[in-house]
Amino acid sequence: MWSYRIIAPYLFERTDIEDKTPQCLADRHVLLRFLAAGVCGSDLPAFRGAKGRLPGDDGRSAAEKDGFPIHEVAGEVIASRHPDHQPGDLVVGWASAFDGMMELVVTHGDGLAPYDPALTPTQAVGLQPLACVLYACEQLPDLTGRHVAIIGQGSIGLLFAYVAKAAGARRVTGVDPVDRAALSKTFGVDDAVRATSDRWVSQLAPTDRADVVIEAVGHQVATLGHAIDATAPGGTVFYFGVADDEAYPINMRVMLRNNLTLKSGVTLDRRRVLEQAAKFAAERPGLLETYLTHTFAVDEVQAAFELACRPVPDRVKIAVAR
């Protein structure tokens, strides 16, 4: 079967590897036929050659792990040892070993849920990041009537803006150095700020500080500090971005004096929130179609990741399809 792996910084290679078989399945795992995958911002450090902490990421010049680093997948169940999934089911969710860029994928069934067959697989794959955002927003205080600011207006940051507005936020501010003006209103952003987060926070009036600030950039240390500085007294900071460093220095004096709450965390209850994401999207026709802006064929995965690394104003979600 076909598989892709990163063999050097910014370079995918197609290889042929041994087929997965139903006999390889552990309890509660399923075997999927690849239909589509989403490119996530958390995949990009691996594409650039950075060494991660996942098992199997041990190559000399890059990870060199088959199927890596894709984790957002939609597929057809071929075989199952999970009670909730049967052969023929169309499902979306997590490739639990971050090896979803291959023809047949073995993954834990708890991280999958069915999707409406009226959706294309490339549209359906958007339910995975939507589920992550919905779960994160469950960890926040009630957003009704609050000012929510989101640092980073990529594919995750725009979803946060949309969900915050749907949850009743009075005002949503989106901050990004890329010009997102053409997309901002569609995703519920009231104030689109084209600036780096350090410049934005340095010009922020006390009355413009937000009740909730979401860091949706990740992969750098400074933006968490900017989020803390941009939060109004008594407010909440949610760090959603993926941390590449083990330790992040924060201003404890600001945290203390302003009575702030700092939260973070990975997505749990994955099947539940995937089902919630499907319901949320079904109640808002057009969301997933608008979210998906670029689709590439499997043999164009190199081009898909190269586009993901460029600051393109009209790019939101990139998908790779069989």
Automatic annotation (TrEMBL):
PANTHER family, per the entry: D-GULOSIDE 3-DEHYDROGENASE (PTHR43350:SF19), NAD-DEPENDENT ALCOHOL DEHYDROGENASE (PTHR43350)
Top-level lineage group: Bacteria
Domain Alcohol dehydrogenase-like N-terminal residues, every copy: 27-92
Keyword Metal-binding assigned: yes
Residues in Alcohol dehydrogenase-like C-terminal domain copies: 156-282
Cofactor(s) required for function per UniProt: Zn(2+)
Sorted UniProt keywords: Metal-binding, Oxidoreductase, Zinc
Species name: Mycobacterium asiaticum
Family: Belongs to the zinc-containing alcohol dehydrogenase family.
GO molecular function, one term: oxidoreductase activity
Protein name: Alcohol dehydrogenase
